[in-house]
């Protein structure tokens, strides 16, 4: 039987139940989900499904990430709500591709873990499955493992195995209204040019779940816990001195009251220049290098190859010596006399992140 898999949260319990019901059946998991945005999230969900299938002793195959074809299929339906027509097309695409794979591999049955997801329409999935069964002759296995206390058991299993519990369905179009309603920054879609791993980003979760896999393999004790913290994202920032744009790097947690300010250096101490407006501090790359014990030749190198956030915070601490400070700290190639025009569009927000202890 080929089992289309959408994510480990849905698949782990579903596969356990299928294994119980079909003890003599060779099960093959098929991860085909081009609907998942961004690609980092897709990798993360695959990583977790791989971990879950390994635990269950189920072979897993990864399908193509044909995002462009998927986008073309849902064109014009981007604005529709979850469980609407866009989702029907999305289920269609995933089941059609899965049944083709099942035929290619010589299976005579197929099913999907989407059936257990509380946010999916079982009715629509059942219809699509029945239609494909009629067209191909492969039996579609419809099971409602949500029934009774299935959802509750599923939740316990997720905790027990420290599975990655994503908090959105998958696509950009479902995520956008969800984050708008929550009045929350859509930080899943931030991916810095530098590849710096931001707090509570998908990349950070990938690091965390890779670490979980390592600990599991070594048989070491661990727990994934949640921590509340102040998160930050920089949308854009730029500096002009005497109307001339200069390369600049904004340290993590740099904010100003509005999005624009201007001023002049009022005071300098130990290479840190204090502007006369909006608590802004500027320093040149040499001063930064001596504080960070680095050897950047210029700010551009720092932009493309920055320190880890934790190390940036240590530099901020050395400069400001106040853990609650949110002043803009800006690094330039050189600091010279003149009028500074600064644009800084950034946001701080309370957030929750997972950590391994
Ligand atoms: S909300 Fe979920 S099911 Fe609907 S189109 Fe997006 S990824 Fe597919």
Tell me what the structure shows:
The structure is a single chain. This protein has 357 residues and is of the alpha/beta class. It folds into 2 domains: 2-166, HUPs (Rossmann fold, 3-Layer(aba) Sandwich); 233-350, no CATH class. 39% of the residues lie in helices and 22% in strands. It is built from 11 helices and 14 strands. The protein has a 5-stranded parallel beta sheet, with helices on both faces. β10 (265-269) and β11 (272-275) form a beta hairpin. α1 (8-21) packs across α6. It is elongated and about 80 Å long. The mean pLDDT is 96.
Per DSSP, the total helix count is 11
Query: Approximately what portion of the residues adopt beta-strand conformation?
Result: 15-25%
User: What do we call the CATH topology of the largest domain?
Assistant: Rossmann fold
Q: How would you characterize the largest beta sheet?
A: 5 strands, parallel
What brief labels describe this structure?
alpha/beta; Rossmann fold; 2 domains; 5-stranded parallel beta sheet; 5-stranded mixed beta sheet; 11 helices; 14 strands; 39% helix; elongated; binds iron/sulfur cluster
Question: How are the SSEs placed, and which strands pair?
Answer:
Elements: E1 2-5, H1 8-21, E2 28-31, H2 39-56, E3 59-62, H3 67-73, H4 85-104, E4 109-112, H5 122-136, E5 139-140, H6 150-160, H7 172-182, H8 202-218, E6 224-241, E7 244-246, E8 248-250, E9 260-263, E10 265-269, E11 272-275, E12 281-284, H9 285-292, H10 299-304, H11 309-320, E13 329-332, E14 340-356
This protein binds iron/sulfur cluster.
